[in-house]
Structures are given as structure tokens and as C-alpha cells.
Design goal:
The protein is an alpha/beta fold. It folds into 3 domains: 66 residues, Histidine-containing Protein, Chain: A (2-Layer Sandwich), CATH 3.30.1340.30; 66 residues, Histidine-containing Protein, Chain: A (2-Layer Sandwich), CATH 3.30.1340; 66 residues, 2-Layer Sandwich (Histidine-containing Protein, Chain: A), CATH 3.30.1340. It contains 6 helices and 12 strands. Strands 1, 2, 3 and 4 form a 4-stranded mixed beta sheet that branches. Strands 5, 6, 7 and 8 form a 4-stranded mixed beta sheet that branches. Strands 9, 10, 11 and 12 form a 4-stranded mixed beta sheet that branches. The longest helix is centred in the first third of the chain and has 14 residues. It is flat.
């Protein structure tokens, strides 16, 4: 697909998505690599923009440079954001809030602590990303492995075989100390994302090194 066609498809998708204000978002494409610039009013919109772009056929990679600029003159104080974030973590049934800490600096949230599952780490981020005043999140929560590397490898490979989007034989999986390395070649960016998502879903995975290339 030509870059100008891909760029127009992305612009059309962003304008079609009702939860995104795309008026101040810039899109550039070179060899299938998409660069997003500009600004949006909330962190949730920022992540929604990136997710929308990932869905587009022909996207090989994304360089995301969008800023979060809250509308209006009222800026929520860091201590108020921190209080809301702590409450959001404690009220979430999935998140082990007592094991986590949150720090806010100029609207940027940093999550720390330890959990047993990647879905708990992801849920903590989702719990706070929609809070007013959040401009970005650094998720430094550790996933502490409680299973062996061969078991993790088998679970990931089995997940690949179950997923209709993934050509399981095209991807190699290596596991060492909770770090998963994925290598191989796939036909679409969404297949690469599906493989990475499946790897993160295995118990004990602390890091995924996605080296899969899109043909």
C-alpha cells in the first residue's frame, strides 16, 4: 500500500472514531511507519488514537508523539490526582491495590509494586488512565513469576495455536527469567500485536521483546 493511501485511511479512521477529537492530530507516513503528532485533551484519547491506528491494514510501526493538553484553565493538583488514583486502585476488584504505589508529578503518574499476573498490571493502568489531570503513565509494576520457563513457553505457544489471527509456526518463542522474546515474520501488523498480547497473557511474564517483523 502506498504511503499517501495509508495516511488517508488513518485520517478517515480517526475522524470516524466518535471518542476522538482528531482536529489537532497530525499524521505522517513513511514506508508504513506512522508518526502521530499534535495534542488531545485527555490521556484516554491519546491511547485510543494509537489503538485506532494499529487497526489499520498496512501499518508497520507507530512513532507516537501526541501531547496531552487538558482543556480550560483549571489544572488538577498532583495531590488530588494521587488521592483519586489510590481510590481507583483500591476500588478495582482486579487490582491488588495494597501491593501498589502511585506517584504523581505534574500530572504524570508512575505506578510501582509487584503483582503475580500481567492482567493485574494492565488493569492498574486502565484504572487510572481516565482520571482528570492525568497526562501520562509510567507503568513500572513488576510481574513476579511463579512458574517455570518451559511452562511459560508452552502456554504461549498453545495460545498462538488457538488464536485465528496468528500463524503459530511462523513465530519462535524464547523464555528466560520472565522475559519472552518473540521472533519471526508475519503478514500484518495486527498479527504481530496479537502475538505480543498472547505472550503478555501468560502467567509470570515480566517483559516481552517483540522482534517480529511485518512483511
Amino acid at each position: 500500500m502506498q504511503d499517501n493511501t495509508l495516511r488517508q485511511n488513518i485520517i478517515d479512521e480517526l475522524e470516524f472514531e466518535p471518542s476522538i477529537d482528531a482536529a489537532d492530530i497530525g499524521v505522517a507516513v513513511e514506508n508504513g511507519i506512522v508518526t502521530l503528532t499534535g495534542h488531545v485533551p485527555t490521556y484516554t484519547q491519546k491511547t485510543t488514537v494509537e489503538a485506532a491506528v494499529r487497526r489499520i491494514r498496512g501499518v508497520r510501526g507507530i512513532a507516537e508523539q501526541i501531547e496531552v493538553r487538558p482543556r480550560g484553565f483549571h489544572i488538577t493538583a498532583d495531590d488530588e490526582i494521587a488521592r483519586r488514583a489510590v481510590n481507583a486502585l483500591e476500588w478495582n476488584e482486579i487490582v491488588p491495590g495494597e501491593k501498589l504505589q502511585v506517584t504523581i508529578q505534574k500530572g504524570w503518574a508512575t505506578l510501582t509494586g509487584k503483582v503475580e499476573w500481567q492482567y493485574e498490571r494492565d488493569a492498574a493502568m486502565r484504572a487510572i488512565k481516565g482520571l482528570a489531570g492525568i497526562t501520562g503513565i509510567s507503568n513500572l509494576i513488576e510481574v513476579v513469576p511463579k512458574v517455570s520457563a518451559p511452562d511459560v513457553k508452552k502456554r504461549i505457544e498453545d495460545a498462538f495455536k488457538r488464536d485465528a489471527q496468528i500463524e503459530a509456526d511462523a513465530i519462535k518463542v524464547q523464555v528466560l527469567d520472565g522475559k519472552v522474546t518473540l521472533e519471526g515474520k508475519v503478514k500484518a501488523y495486527r498479527e504481530r500485536q496479537a502475538a505480543e498480547r498472547a505472550a503478555w497473557s501468560a502467567a509470570g511474564v515480566r517483559h516481552v521483546d517483540d522482534r517480529i517483523t511485518v512483511l
